[in-house]
Design brief:
With about 160 residues, this protein is mainly alpha-helical. The protein has a domain of about 110 residues: Orthogonal Bundle (Helicase, Ruva Protein, domain 3). Helix content is about 50%, strand content about 0%. It has 6 helices and no strands. The longest helix is centred in the first third of the chain and has 20 residues. It is elongated and about 60 Å long. The chain starts with about 40 loop residues before the first helix and ends in a 5-residue tail after the last helix. About 5% of the residues have low confidence. GO terms for molecular function: GTPase activator activity. This is Rab-GAP TBC domain-containing protein. It holds the Pfam family RabGAP-TBC. Keywords: GTPase activation. InterPro entries: Rab-GAP-TBC_dom, Rab-GAP_TBC_sf.
Length: about 160
């Protein structure tokens, strides 16, 4: 997440994007754009709310299928946290509810399990084209989060009534 004053604050591993830095925020009115301000138009209010939401999501993600090693990896936990946070921002009428991580988890696991490594990861320089290229295009590991998002969003269109 990027704070309203332009600083990068991550709740997981990783570096700030190259464009992050001080002085990028709107600071025209410090009475409104102030981390201690309570004004409804204060961008910091949403930012603190987002941090709280991500923290709640992360707690549930950390408890996801504790007996399965796949869900203990930091990369998997980061992916799940990001996907669930995006869902709650795009569906504010539902938001995040406990149990959504249980719907997302098997989708991510299956999509990741069925994904194919890039040709460089497999040690192949030249492909024979045809089916291999098509399979890689459809099942590329680099699109695991995207494919999981598409499935999760479709599932949630039907399942969100259970979270009202």
């Amino acid at each position: 997440l990027r704070s309203p004053d332009g600083r990068w604050v991550a709740d997981g591993p990783g570096d700030a994007p190259a464009t992050a830095g001080k002085g990028q925020a709107r600071v025209e009115d410090l009475k409104v754009n102030n981390p201690l301000g309570l004004d409804d138009g204060n961008p910091w209010q949403e930012w603190f709310s987002d941090l709280e939401t991500r923290s709640e999501i992360r707690k549930d993600v950390l408890r996801t299928f504790p007996e399965v090693d796949y869900f203990r990896s930091a990369e998997t936990q980061d992916r799940m946290t990001d996907l669930l946070f995006i869902w709650c921002k795009l569906a504010p009428e539902v938001g995040y509810r406990q149990g959504m991580h249980e719907l997302l988890a098997p989708l991510l696991w299956f999509v990741d399990y069925d994904s194919l490594p890039t040709p460089d990861d497999r040690g192949q320089q030249d492909g024979d084209g045809g089916n291999d290229e098509l399979a890689h295009l459809v099942l590329a590991r680099e699109w695991v989060e995207h494919d999981t998002w598409a499935l999760f969003a479709a599932v949630m269109q039907s399942a969100k009534i259970f979270y009202d």
